[in-house]
Hints:
Chain A is an alpha/beta fold. Chain A has helices at 3-17, 45-52, 142-145, 171-175, 188-197, 225-228, 236-245, 263-272, 283-286; strands at residues 60-62, 79-82, 89-92, 97-99, 103-106, 114-116, 121-126, 132-135, 162-170, 185-186, 210-214, 233-234, 249-252, 275-278, 293-298, 308-309, 314-316.
Amino acid sequence: MSMSFFALMTTIISLKAQTRNEGPWWPNKLWGAIDQAGGSNWITPEKIVKALSLVKTGKVFELGHQYERGMPMSGQRSYNIFIPSFPTHGPTGNDKVVFNDEYVTGEIGQVGTQFDGPGHVGKQITMADGTTANVFYNGVNEDEMRNPYGLQKLGVENVKPIITRGILIDLAAYKGVNTIPENYEITLADIRNAFAKQGMKESDIEPGDALLFNLGWWRIWPDKKIVQARTPYPGKEVIDWIISIKPSMVGSDAILDTGPEYLLHKEAILKNGIFNLEFMNFESMVSEKQQYKFLFLFTPLRLKGATGSPGRPLAIY
Amino acid sequence: MSMSFFALMTTIISLKAQTRNEGPWWPNKLWGAIDQAGGSNWITPEKIVKALSLVKTGKVFELGHQYERGMPMSGQRSYNIFIPSFPTHGPTGNDKVVFNDEYVTGEIGQVGTQFDGPGHVGKQITMADGTTANVFYNGVNEDEMRNPYGLQKLGVENVKPIITRGILIDLAAYKGVNTIPENYEITLADIRNAFAKQGMKESDIEPGDALLFNLGWWRIWPDKKIVQARTPYPGKEVIDWIISIKPSMVGSDAILDTGPEYLLHKEAILKNGIFNLEFMNFESMVSEKQQYKFLFLFTPLRLKGATGSPGRPLAIY
Amino acid sequence: MSMSFFALMTTIISLKAQTRNEGPWWPNKLWGAIDQAGGSNWITPEKIVKALSLVKTGKVFELGHQYERGMPMSGQRSYNIFIPSFPTHGPTGNDKVVFNDEYVTGEIGQVGTQFDGPGHVGKQITMADGTTANVFYNGVNEDEMRNPYGLQKLGVENVKPIITRGILIDLAAYKGVNTIPENYEITLADIRNAFAKQGMKESDIEPGDALLFNLGWWRIWPDKKIVQARTPYPGKEVIDWIISIKPSMVGSDAILDTGPEYLLHKEAILKNGIFNLEFMNFESMVSEKQQYKFLFLFTPLRLKGATGSPGRPLAIY
Amino acid sequence: MSMSFFALMTTIISLKAQTRNEGPWWPNKLWGAIDQAGGSNWITPEKIVKALSLVKTGKVFELGHQYERGMPMSGQRSYNIFIPSFPTHGPTGNDKVVFNDEYVTGEIGQVGTQFDGPGHVGKQITMADGTTANVFYNGVNEDEMRNPYGLQKLGVENVKPIITRGILIDLAAYKGVNTIPENYEITLADIRNAFAKQGMKESDIEPGDALLFNLGWWRIWPDKKIVQARTPYPGKEVIDWIISIKPSMVGSDAILDTGPEYLLHKEAILKNGIFNLEFMNFESMVSEKQQYKFLFLFTPLRLKGATGSPGRPLAIY
């Protein structure tokens, strides 16, 4: 039989499946039909206890950038901060106390070190009834989510605090470069070789770990090239591997995805709820005697109805 | 000698002292002349290791509110969130991927569950040279800080991640009420009695712990009364005690301060760098078999030049 | 024949008509298929010359409110203004020059005295091909307009400056009240009687005039009731009359529309491009010896892709 | 006697004068001690009638740019516009009406075609009592104006609508160039020669006219060079002449000022209340048979407490 017959059959099957209740990536096989928390569900009390046990010295490493005016941003996103007057309030009382506020405007969950939550990425598909719909994680569609003042479903407030084992995969070190070049497709062999160089085995990774990839692009920051270049990206094989590993989330010092097809966004975030922390900063780690397994902390802000979150990722070991 | 003589002497002494280099609350006795991190300096690797050791089960408690439109805010502060179009981007590529962003405007570090950082509160004083200046933590003055686009010194990015022992002082439980009434001045006796009821001794507290006060006002949230009423506040005696205890920070489910003199803001934050987390939420804790000592996590966002930070405070035990 | 047969026929007819090229309200009969300026097209050089000729004394009347924090706004709209630091810039140069900026956030074309432009109101309809579409003035649909960063078609920048004859219809004066009560449906008889009281004839109105209705609700401003109450509204008969009169625009001191069906928005703005200036202020006029025909000026800001505009409407006579 | 003696005397005299009530540029000699409207006071009913009489054909010329994302802005100023969701509201009612809003953030009175109002520019000076103060138009000082949420005095809402005679001084045409080069200091001879070329006499100008200078820089827009280059600027002699002419305001297609001393801002705006409309667009005028005297309309938005205003300047003749 010809390929086109298979293609046709696939289309028919997928059309049959694409109702609100059932579709190619929903209900989520791991977390069930009403889940909005994705990979963060791996963060159980037991997982936390295990992650904390990795800490020996208590040394803290900052794995994010500061948020500041002028940092690199994609497209037309923006970030502004103001001090309204100075001082903003006062002097007040006998003791002439004064206060300052800041006023911030911006795509706060989608600038700087940013965590893509469950409402960030979707796909326009044709449903079984012939209608076209934008469908997101776990089959949630536009009609359930759309609101001018914050998503009504799949807001980032649904994601649980990430307190887990962080696994650093230092691809730049394996490649022996400061910064992996543009347009580089990361292979599964690269990952396996990096593990070998790090004295680790693939089987050291456990479900719910956070997989963090050092591409050396934190060295570029805050050069705008980091949001304009085609930064290194995992190929399909690597993304399938990531999904098979069942991490709570992934992260890197770039976006871990590029190109027209947004493989990682589509396969990991959208279809599997494996959320992605972009534009991390590994400077503090790589300047030390390196550890590759550590306590990883990232607590997304509970901004109701937001698509992502800023934050302050930390490694402790 | 009369009191007025002492008062005069004090004035003379303080006038003498009030130069950039030396004044009534600077250089900071604990952390030195150039410090901008205050009580967060207590969070050493050793302290972290000790705090982590409190975790037995790994159960996580959310100690903050979600950030949302319409939440109570002081004065003219505001918080807005938008989804620009829906989807914001796409469909793009063969697979018709779509993306959403959120756009947020607001006094982001001074609304909702909010952490007052080192640049939030100051005092207008007369310097030795006769000039008037707004002076902040560690003697930093307006000229060093003032910038329309974010504080140049004492921004909240200077505060280290708070990973420490949390000590809950459940004043509402001690008083046997859901919510401590308005206008109530918290006494040192209240605190000691609360410890006794909790089976704790004052000496259980160690430098660098986070002192968290349950006033029962999280039950009011999101009623605007919580920002309009004179919520329970510690008197001078309690504030002196707090300072003597040397916590990394304090927190409560209200502001732990009110009235024209802003005692806590002035004595704890401004003069001692003991920062204050306001409008916490103890709902998840008090609905469980209570613990009073636990791992406490709060990672202020590194918003460069901001006066405060939103966040997601957690207890784990 | 039964009603349902007629209903069916109507549906069939309207379905036939509803393509991009032809539908119930497009192409616009007065201005043609590609028009985006609606009633402002009446403002020709000749019309301007005629309008200017009404000016005898040169006295100016402000017909709008100031824009300020706390003014009444519908729903979740907001308006904030800040002075970033003070001064925002400087001192700079030998002469120590300083500068202030303001930073404004808000639904700037949909708060306060506001002009609803061509992209503000649409209707969800079923097209001939069975698809559902949001269609706006002159048949422009969502696909042509939608962009997160400003409308791609029907932005308010397409509206020409309104320099025309203003016709005041003082309904409050006719009714002998300060403020016409809530829930009042304005009738055509009211309008004719008001004209009679004003010593005017309906035939005094010419195409392209701006029809301004005094309902006495400017007296309520800035009470929030003005955006919460069902302010006086024209019934179908009046709206049909307005459309037949061919004004460049309408205006009033409320919204001139309320209730679930938004008759004026739908019939005048959406279908006929007769734009609507809401929340005007007639205080300066009614405190003078009244004129009812005058030079009317309103220059919508050319905010590219905006749905409306703030402004400073003026009467001169 | 030596110059330094005179300088000393000047200093002494000016120090004596610099109280709130009296200083080098206040009370304003033309408009008195409490004035906040500056040159817009020239716009009397008589002036308006005279200006309207210039209109013969009613043809309208747009003299401003559209406001849009990406337009050139000075320093860290910004301008963003969003459509929250699409549609923002609805469908609502039986007829499924939908609505769009726009959300705008930016230094709205200091971006694009912008009118500098009375609170925009000041000077830091030493007062007679030895204190340092930022003083603005008519001697208003920081203490009277400063408020985080909008200026308490000298807000742009105090400026009257500009409905006056516009006088175009086409310096680019006189120079025979499309665009006058960078760093060019405009001389009084240039202005007189331009008048001669235009068939005008200096005495054609009357108090309260708006003086508009075509430098040819509108041709550069939206190239960011227009805010980065040292655009042509009037020297001291020209500024003195402008002040002597007593215009209601000045305008140009650049900022009509540059360099460290901000002569025009300081002498014309600050000291004389002759406000300045920056970044105008003369494209529509110069493509026609040119007129140099016309009705000029500019109605600053009454944004309470703002330092400037966007707008839609028009010429009609």
